[in-house]
Amino acid sequence: TIPTSRTFHQLIGIDEQELMRATNATFKLGIHFENWLQEGVNYIHSFGATGKESWIAEFQHFWLRAKEQGMGGNFGEYCLEHQASSQKKFACAPGMDINYAYHLDALLYAKFLKNIAIEHGVKYFEGKICTVNKNHNNGYIDSLVLESGQTIQGDLFIDCTGFEALLIEKTLQTGFEDWSHLLPCDAAVAVQTETTSTDILPLTRSIAMGSGWRWCIPLQNRMGNGYVYSRRHISDDQAIADLLKAVDGKALNEPRVIRHRPGVRRKVWNKNCVAIGLSGGFLEPLESTGIHLFMMGVVRLIQFFPFSGINQSLQDQYNGLAVAELTGIRDFIMLHYHLTKRDDTQFWRDCRIKELPNTLAHRINLFKNNAHAYQAAGELFRVDSWVQVMLGQGIVPEHYHHSVKLMSDANLAGFLESIKAPIQEKVKSMPTHADFIQHYCRS
Question: 140 near 132, Cβ under 8 Å?
């Protein structure tokens, strides 16, 4: 997950320790990108704020000035979450300013949320849908018929049927905007393995491979692994073989191949059907946004719920926000691929020459030329995220804001030390991630 999940959990009254015990969860402070820029070059996209900013210029401008003057060190030294994760440390407590998320077992998480829903009065019927009945006058969905013969009627239907998109697409034929020309990967293979170390990283590992990348996600009881790849560059069988060769520990299940198509439904809300999750659109899990997107789908539906009946203005607002968010995340994922310097395989050579959307090309040029980054209204990723990834992927800004030159070298050095020293002390006092889990939320 990403840190927005904690806000969602607070909204619906979930106890964090109870959740983590039920889902074999560990903590996550960011993502460790390995070999993305080129072989042997790694960086962390952490969830924390880096440094301190002024109203004129963000922290990267101060840091770039310091680097020019022969000081400043690494950008990550000024971020608590970056330093804690790189040292395998973690701690949280009420009032403690640390930004984190979770690694969790998705199936157990679904079960956990389902039980909460039932406890709060949701009526649960299990069965396979065999027929979807539409209203002949307006084309709305009237009811679902299950294989058992049971009919489920409703005024509003939420399509959570995944890539099948049974209601929003197969029934309502909404249409799909395909982003395969922008994002190279169209399949993934996943496998669970035994844990081989008592050291639990508070990070997701994202490791670039010959035809894509693989994830490595630590839970309390096992390791989650997967290889996201392009079938234009590698076969399913070879992807499975490459993944099994790369992972540590004994496989606990048969590798499972999942084929996908990146893109978004032309209308996420069409007539009386709202698509939430994979039925509404899909982006590969490079920045762990899948669960966030279903949470935002739920929150938006609450905000724009059709109490007085479904009308076009509600649908338009919901759809505009949903598509804008997916587009912003798409651009952020594309950033990782486009800025690579790898040319060792055809996959990576193809990634470098992809035509960019104007929105992303502008961001890259703005940072490269002027060290400026921004978070537009409603966007998911903060300035800190854009800066960390653009620096990690090799952009060295040509210029910075000259207001930072008003600070003398001595004052600049003192300013940077006033940020770095407290972080070092705080991380030094933290327990290891594994020890904290043992005492806080052991399953």
Answer: no
pTM over 0.90: yes
Token pair of 227 as six digits: 């290889």
* End-to-end Cα distance, the chain: 19
Contact yes or no for 206/235 (Cβ under 8 A): no
Residue 438: which H helix or E strand, with range?
Answer: helix 433-440
* Segments of 171-282 assigned E as strands: 176-178, 187-193, 204-209, 212-218, 223-229, 256-259, 263-265, 269-270, 273-275, 281-282
β-bridge partners, 100: none
Strand partners, 159: 275
How far is residue 305's CA from residue 53's CA, in Å, rounded to a whole number? 39
Return the axis-axis angle of helices 383-392 and 312-338, rounded to nearest 10°.
30
Q: What is the pLDDT of residues 152-178, one digit of tens each?
A: 999 999 999 999 999 999 999 999 999
In tens, the pLDDT along 299-314 reads 999 999 999 999 999 9
Do the Cβ atoms of 44 and 87 come closer than 8 Å? Answer: no
Does an H or E element contain 240, and which? helix 236-246
Residue 314 sits at φ, ψ, to 5 deg, of -65, -45
